[in-house]
Write a structure and sequence with these properties.
two-stranded antiparallel ribbon; alpha+beta; 3-stranded antiparallel sheet; elongated; 27% helix
Length: 125
């Protein structure tokens, strides 16, 4: 037995009540929701009433929920090798030793130009 695989593609907001009732009779309430109905004249007629709002395909069997979810999942095209370095103090990339110097945590003379925050404001060095 074959089935109609019906997916609500467009929203029914602002459409006449009769159109929304047809979608409700098909079991479609949310966008991207998919339902399966047997290939019969009454379902074909309902689909024709809302053909601009739905995507329809004829399939051999009903797919399980996990199969539909797996179908929608994109292919794994990349993997995370390592985290990107964080940006600190005004968007400038600064090493931890240099940052400690800029904040005055390390004794000695500041030899690096950069941005230091003092009391909520920024001071350019």
């Amino acid at each position: 037995m074959s089935y109609f695989r019906i997916t609500l593609h467009r929203s029914a907001i602002g459409l006449p009540q009769r159109t929304r009732d047809v979608l409700s009779a098909l079991g479609l309430h949310k966008r991207s929701q998919t339902v399966y109905h047997p290939v019969e004249p009454q379902f074909a007629g309902m689909i024709m009433k809302v053909k601009e709002l739905v995507k329809v395909a004829e399939v051999d069997r009903k797919l399980e929920k996990w199969e539909v979810k797996a179908e929608r999942r994109p292919d794994s095209g990349f993997y995370l090798e390592k985290m990107a370095p964080r940006m600190e103090d005004g968007g400038q990339k600064i090493g931890s030793r240099v940052l400690a110097r800029l904040r005055g945590e390390e004794s000695g003379e500041m030899t690096v130009e950069g941005v230091r925050t003092e009391g909520g404001g920024q001071v350019r060095l």
